[in-house]
Amino acid sequence: MSRKITVAAAQVGAVHKDASKPETVQRLIKLLHEAAEKKVQLVVYPECTLTTFFPRHFIESREELDTYFEHGADITQSPDVKPLFDEAKAQGIDICIGYAERTPDGSGYNTSVYYSASAGKVISKYRKVHLPGRVEPFEDPNATNQLEKRYFKPGDLGFKAFRAPGLKTDGKGDPIMGMLICNDRRWPEAWRVYTLQGAEILMFGYNTGSHMSHLWGGTSMSPEEQEQEALFHSRLVQQANSYMHACFSISSARCGVDDGKYDLIGGSSIVSPEGHVIAEAKTKEDELIVAEIDVAECRKGKERTFDYARHRRVEAYGVITVQTGIVEPELL
Amino acid sequence: MSRKITVAAAQVGAVHKDASKPETVQRLIKLLHEAAEKKVQLVVYPECTLTTFFPRHFIESREELDTYFEHGADITQSPDVKPLFDEAKAQGIDICIGYAERTPDGSGYNTSVYYSASAGKVISKYRKVHLPGRVEPFEDPNATNQLEKRYFKPGDLGFKAFRAPGLKTDGKGDPIMGMLICNDRRWPEAWRVYTLQGAEILMFGYNTGSHMSHLWGGTSMSPEEQEQEALFHSRLVQQANSYMHACFSISSARCGVDDGKYDLIGGSSIVSPEGHVIAEAKTKEDELIVAEIDVAECRKGKERTFDYARHRRVEAYGVITVQTGIVEPELL
Lengths: 332, 332
Fold this sequence. Notes:
Two copies of one chain form a homodimer. By secondary structure, the first copy, chain A, is an alpha/beta fold.
């Protein structure tokens, strides 16, 4: 039996440092209207969608830093962002969106929520587990920083799969879903924890620099080659993890050139459980990519090559959950 | 500092059901001589290199089945295979080779050994953990079986990384290595356990059918498309896992058409820690592919994006080692 639904990634182009949040939200709503015209049931927005990707900046003022965060327990009531959720509800479209979250105790998280249009509320929240980058800024004032480890705590909500009550497929059963954020996509542990819960669709946004190689001791690659390499890695992990975990994936890029100098890759895509790209963004600007997917196609992988119950051997995996870093074997 | 060594995959073409084991071993020795001419230090042979891939056959006679296995505690003393190890020692080339192992207690394993030429002995043994296929043969007499779960027990030696005492790089330190076998390459857990031990080179052989889709409920793909799909998946997981685990990988195919009807993919390859194919087989016959690799290139991944100590969050991975199959979330 087929279980078809229509899904989209809403890629978002340049968002400059001084961008107005209400104006950015209007861009998101425009993409949502396009989705409504195309009968889309679920739209996935990027990571930290509402502002420029501020972890590239070393911001010492807490007051300034806080302008990039959403405060308050319920993002759907955040004045600048509420119009997006209201419109999602009006259009009957579920959305997954990333933002910087400041909790009442002052902690920062790189967060995504899943808003169910039929429930009229956020039904799942995820906080990014695999924070890349560093705590301290680079000494070189020309280097592009990546300060997620400074501004955010590692996510404390785990990887909790869920079903959206209103996201009906045309067959029996709603899809089981999960959220990742950016760098998480490079960590198969994250995909495995979700798919051990039967996840059929994983969603993630990302902000991935096109020319980050200079941060790490230089490169002989041209800027164009660096961008191709970053795109290659992004596609490679999405395709391989979709295949090895027998699930669809929907990825959405914050991309383009922020402030005339910070270039982010595009490549938003929808990938099948066999690892094939079904739809992919053609631009590095605001762009909606849409696909009708048949969630039943996950069964092939889940019941055969990747039938966990028959093939996984947890007795051989022990160190994965007890050992964080490398412990080399003794020299022979 | 660079740490260069020259490595090879010795791909092996068709091996028919009635092939003579001494003749097959002579083919392996011929590839070893080519490796010696090219100053290769390590040759990786396929999975179950010494015979046809017998798990495709339903063999009821234990006596017949045992002809496909190596018996005795030390494969280097197995009369048919000893000439290969003797030649490896004479040439000073380390080899990794897969074979079917029958233990004294009658158990069967799908095994690989690492033979160190300088030590003059096997210094590491691996038994395949992720056995694909089924215990029972198909009812359809025209179907190609995959009976590894019938003939082999899951490997009981874990994933133990090791250093080869004589495999000198031209810089400081010998590479840390590990062995996988065929289907293991599709399971990131296996790569992770090895690379949590610092593994820099993973080696594996495989027997992967070109046209297996008919086993699983039919396909609309042509035979050529099926072979391309099988190759696509094989490359995808090798490239992505090499990247996500920041290690080189060397894969070696048993390939070609066995007995005029069982078609296996080629695609033996050497892949960099950035996920790029450095060398790849051009044929589906006996073929040596060679590359000089710089093991120091693993540092980029191991110290940056995939610096496990800084980025892994084991508190979020718990189910990976305690739960074998899928447990779906409760319905909302």
